[in-house]
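User: Just a sanity check before I run the rest of the batch. Below are the structure tokens for the first item. I only need the designed sequence back.
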């Protein structure tokens, strides 16, 4: 099992033990659906409540650097927090699930995924939701990240024929990325 997979496995097991729903997103998800690339972090959306943060920090102790005060401060301000897997130095970004309609629907659509063969099940965002969220991140980053745009291109190259374009067209205007979606689809 690869080093990132060891970190992900430990995190997923901890979240499962605490009954916290999770979903792999970001570069790991775009690599599953598109062109694989190396990344030193794993992004996850979690349906974590503030009162669960101390239990998660305790659960991760020994395997991860997890500062409960930083976690709580980030959660309180609606921001992601990071934990670092000691053995692999991989960072896992934990994004609290937003309450908006799109985020709730995307989280509900997550699908089973596996990495490094059988034995490491996890939930992953769908290809469509990975595209929409990558477009949001691209926009929020000033629309100048070739890495993000190349991830999107790679996803369309690999999974483009299977992507639900009706779903993309329904949500893109609502999350403010309709123009970027059109540009991507027309490339």
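Assistant: Here's the designed sequence for the first item:
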């Amino acid at each position: 099992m690869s080093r990132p997979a060891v970190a992900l496995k430990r995190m997923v097991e901890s979240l499962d033990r605490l009954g916290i729903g999770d979903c792999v997103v970001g570069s790991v998800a775009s690599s599953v659906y598109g062109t694989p690339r190396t990344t030193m972090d794993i992004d996850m959306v979690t349906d974590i409540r503030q009162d669960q943060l101390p239990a998660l920090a305790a659960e991760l102790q020994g395997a991860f650097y997890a500062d409960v005060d930083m976690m709580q401060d980030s959660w309180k301000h609606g921001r992601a927090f990071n934990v670092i897997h000691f053995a692999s130095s991989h960072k896992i970004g934990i994004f609290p699930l937003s309450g908006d309609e799109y985020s709730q629907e995307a989280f509900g659509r997550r699908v089973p995924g596996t990495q490094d063969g059988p034995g490491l099940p996890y939930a992953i965002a769908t290809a469509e939701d990975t595209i929409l969220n990558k477009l949001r991140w691209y926009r929020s980053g000033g629309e100048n990240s070739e890495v993000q745009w190349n991830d999107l291109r790679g996803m369309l190259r690999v999974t483009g024929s299977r992507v639900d374009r009706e779903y993309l067209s329904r949500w893109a205007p609502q999350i403010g990325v309709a123009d970027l979606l059109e540009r991507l689809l027309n490339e």
